[in-house]
Amino acid sequence: MRLATILLSCLLTIAAARGTHRLFDVDGDHKLHTALVTRADKATTNSVREAFYAAKVVPDVLPSFDPTLLLNVNFTNSGLEDPSVTVEPGVLLTRNQTKFIPEFSISNITEDDGEKTYVVVQVDPDAHTPQNPDVAQVRHLLGGNYTTDGTAATGLALRNSSVAVSEWMRPSPPAGSDPHRYVILLYAQPDNFSAASIAPLVPVNASSSPLHFNLSEFAQATGLGLPVAGTYFLTGPDAASA
Ligand SMILES: *[C@@H]1O[C@H](CO)[C@@H](O)[C@H](O)[C@H]1NC(C)=O
Ligand SMILES: *[C@@H]1O[C@H](CO)[C@@H](O)[C@H](O)[C@H]1NC(C)=O
Ligand SMILES: *[C@@H]1O[C@H](CO)[C@@H](O)[C@H](O)[C@H]1NC(C)=O
Ligand SMILES: *[C@@H]1O[C@H](CO)[C@@H](O)[C@H](O)[C@H]1NC(C)=O
Ligand SMILES: *[C@@H]1O[C@H](CO)[C@@H](O)[C@H](O)[C@H]1NC(C)=O
Ligand SMILES: *[C@@H]1O[C@H](CO)[C@@H](O)[C@H](O)[C@H]1NC(C)=O
Ligand SMILES: *[C@@H]1O[C@H](CO)[C@@H](O)[C@H](O)[C@H]1NC(C)=O
Ligand SMILES: *[C@@H]1O[C@H](CO)[C@@H](O)[C@H](O)[C@H]1NC(C)=O
């Protein structure tokens, strides 16, 4: 077994022994795991929830938001001087920083959370502009079959194992626009949720238009429910085109 795997199984054993105890909390004898809680020290489920309400992600994207996990999002573009950046709610990122699909991980989790399958969605409620969201929401990603796969610096890494329902589209707000909110949400994937099962219910697939998407309606129609975690960032047009 790799060291990370051993460490993880120790954590799971400790968590199981302690019932509902959260895996990566630092308390007394668990100082060992400091590296795993770096991110959780900054954001909490409560602070992310408050950020969503303050930025009107509720109600613009979600009817309500009560996260139980932390979703960590890490963008990497090896062409940049600072190749990776972690998303803190509301952070302003450049188009270059958000060029490629990010990596996801979860923290503040129970053993059960580590065994679930997840759907990741990213939407832009501010297209073409925050003042005139005439084509909103724009669907930038809808991918299922994400499962936990080993440890990351920020918790348990999430990896997908099938083709996205709707592929990643990089943020590209039009010249002159204020920065848009890009909202990334994590849902527990229901057993009956698949690319084939949603097709008769919603006009959402790899080739359907990403414009005029309505995540609340989509979640309602497909039984996806409410997200268990999320975050958001801001991206504006490149300075040269503004
Ligand atoms: C972890 O989740 C619990 C239960 O949802 C919550 O009370 C706690 O504040 C969370 N901790 C962090 C660091 O977000
Ligand atoms: C984006 O990054 C590339 C290098 O990968 C650089 O040439 C380009 O100027 C950057 N664009 C902006 C708007 O900073
Ligand atoms: C983001 O992911 C990259 C690639 O896995 C990793 O090298 C980097 O340390 C991570 N950065 C942060 C800030 O988590
Ligand atoms: C997951 O990985 C596959 C390649 O194995 C890729 O084609 C697919 O689009 C990815 N899905 C997501 C949501 O990124
Ligand atoms: C999960 O993978 C299965 C098998 O490849 C596929 O049929 C299904 O559509 C995928 N689910 C989602 C939500 O992408
Ligand atoms: C995608 O969805 C659209 C709208 O519902 C439908 O017309 C089209 O046939 C679907 N395409 C595929 C490849 O399933
Ligand atoms: C999405 O649908 C809900 C429920 O029908 C509606 O209240 C909301 O205004 C719609 N949002 C957008 C952006 O169209
Ligand atoms: C899954 O089952 C629930 C409950 O029966 C139903 O409301 C939902 O529409 C189903 N979802 C799909 C994608 O079939």
Automatic annotation (TrEMBL):
- List, alphabetically, the SUPFAM superfamilies matched: PEBP-like
Keywords carried by this UniProt record: Signal
The record, for InterPro entries, names: PEBP (IPR008914), PEBP-like_sf (IPR036610), PEBP_euk (IPR035810)
Domain of life, per lineage: Eukaryota
Record bears the keyword Signal: yes
Signal peptide boundaries? 1-19
What Pfam families does the database record attribute to this sequence?
PBP
Q: What is this protein called?
A: Phosphatidylethanolamine-binding protein
Instruction: Please tell me the species this chain comes from.
Output: Schizophyllum amplum
